[in-house]
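Below is a filled-in request sheet from our internal design queue. Each sheet records the structural input a requester submitted and the sequence that came back. We keep these sheets so that new team members can see what a complete request looks like end to end.

REQUESTER: design group, bay 2
PRIORITY: normal
MODE: inverse folding
CHAIN LENGTH: 193
BACKBONE (tokenized):
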């Protein structure tokens, strides 16, 4: 986990291609390359594992909220957005999402990265789509749960990338608020009887 966390931080700030194994060894506090190669056969395998680890961190916080059937669906949706924003606030220097960066940097060069990242986005979208479907009675009839789910993922990932580039977590906070307003604009008016 120490190696994966160090790799995520380096990849998040420098990119995959500019992150060297030697630099990673130093950042992770390893005594030599043998420790790295004990856990990972290659830098590519490490990259794949970083994606999995970062997804697990998001899943611990965000996807668990989406699966909490004790809460109303729209509450879960808004809480999910808040959780993703909060991840960036708590540790912006090591939690910048590597998914968009790796997709942009490596998607055309390494099919394994592209497929793994596509799977991460698909899982997020599928979970969000399921929650949106559960809230169907609260939403306008013209809302496509699939398109709205993809929009939420794309918006959060885009905000994370913008915040990373500008080194300003406030961007993610603002986009999170605007995203919740956008989703709320598709809810049916509340009728009080």
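RETURNED SEQUENCE:
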């Amino acid at each position: 986990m120490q190696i994966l966390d160090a790799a995520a931080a380096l990849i998040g700030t420098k990119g995959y291609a500019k992150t060297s194994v030697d630099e990673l060894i130093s950042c992770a506090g390893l005594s030599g390359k043998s420790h790295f190669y004990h856990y990972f056969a290659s830098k590519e395998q490490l990259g794949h594992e970083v994606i999995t680890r970062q997804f697990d961190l998001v899943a611990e916080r965000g996807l668990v909220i989406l699966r909490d059937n004790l809460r109303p669906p729209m509450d879960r949706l808004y809480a999910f957005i808040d959780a993703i924003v909060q991840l960036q606030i708590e540790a912006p220097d090591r939690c910048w999402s590597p998914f968009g960066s790796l997709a942009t940097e490596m998607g055309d060069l390494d099919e394994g990265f592209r497929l793994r990242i596509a799977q991460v986005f698909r899982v997020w979208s599928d979970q969000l789509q399921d929650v949106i479907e559960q809230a169907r009675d609260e939403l306008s009839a013209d809302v496509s749960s699939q398109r709205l789910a993809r929009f939420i993922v794309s918006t959060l990932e885009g905000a994370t990338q913008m915040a990373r580039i500008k080194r300003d977590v406030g961007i993610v906070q603002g986009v999170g608020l605007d995203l919740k307003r956008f989703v709320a604009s598709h809810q049916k008016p509340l009728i009080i009887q």
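SHEET NOTES:
- DSSP finds ten helices and no strands in the chain.
- Residues 41-184 form a domain with the Tetracycline Repressor; domain 2 fold (CATH 1.10.357.10).
FILED BY: M.R.
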